[in-house]
Each structure stands twice: as structure tokens, then as C-alpha cells.
Write a structure and sequence with these properties.
Blueprint: H1 14-48, H2 59-72, H3 81-95, H4 105-115, H5 123-133, H6 140-152, H7 162-173, H8 175-179, H9 184-194
Helix pairs in contact: 2-3, 4-5, 6-7
Length: about 200
Amino acid sequence: MFVKKIHATTKLSPKEKFRIESFISVVDQLIVSLTERIGAYETICQRFGFLNKIEKLETSELQSAANYLVSIYSNDLESSLGNELIQFGSFVKIYIETRKDNEQWEMFLYRIIEENNLQCTFPNIEVVLRIYLVLMVSNCSGERSFSKMKLIKNRLRTSMTQRRLSELALLSIESDILRSLDFSQVVEKFAATKSRKVII
């Protein structure tokens, strides 16, 4: 005696199929990426957050923040960072009126050190500011580079060298800066070097 087995299959509507196979997967990936991004921002804030209120923090708080940072960047920073921060906090109060409109606070701190030649006075603070200011806190620039590269290196430019591609991508990415430049001197110099004198 044979028993006929019937396999029940659930048929999904196109809407449900899209929701299950595509939409939910995209949302899950988005949540994971945002969670990782938030974690990175929290780490940066935990390490360098004291810079935003360096002139307001108490001595003990600055010393604690300095010790924590030195423990992470032990090869780059010295234990005297805490004392430098205490002195630098008082120094910032003198120059706070010179801060420019819309100037980032950390850039303002770094500008104070550079303009007053205080690299030898506050060497560890300069290192801290340089570490903070070069941190990659966003991947937008990388995504923009790939988008521009797709437009620049098309099927008509397959023989382009790496150097030319890099330079064209840089010009395209920084087009706002490029448009503000005056090319009259560049054109004159180019014309002078490429000029051909023909004897008539």
C-alpha cells in the first residue's frame, strides 16, 4: 500500500515576497551598520569628548581624561598630558574671543597652538588634537570617490593610467574648491612653455 505524500507549499504574494526577501534584509543590514557607526562615535566621544569643554572641566576631571587617553595611546602620549591640559585650559580662556564664526572647536584649539608657536609648550596636546582631527569619522568621502570614479572611468577611457585617474577623481571630488581658483596665471605659464615660434 502506497501512501501519497502531499507537500504543502505556501505561495506568497509579490508584495510579501518583496517584504521578506528584500525589504527586511535591507532594514536588518541598515540596523547593524547604524549600530556599528553609533558604537564608533561613542568610542570617539569617550576618548576625546573632554576637548569640547576643556576650559570648563575641573582639574581632577582633566587628569582623569588624560590618564585614560595616555593608557590608550601610550606610544604617542606622555604622562605629563594631564598637567598640560590644566595649563592649556586656562590659556584657552584668554584666546576664546578670537574664535572665528563657524570654526570647529578642536580646530580653534589647534590654531591657538600653531599661531602662537606653542608646540614645544604643549607637545602632548598638539598630538592629541592631530590624532582627533585626522580620525575617519565618516565613510562619505570613500563612497563619493567610488561614485565619481564610475563617472570618470567609463568604457571610453579604459586605457587611462592610474595617475591620470587619481588626478581627475581629485579634481572632480573637490570641484567646489577648484571652481574658486584663478587659472589665469596657470594658463599664461602653460602658453609660455608650449609656445612655438614660427619663422616667416
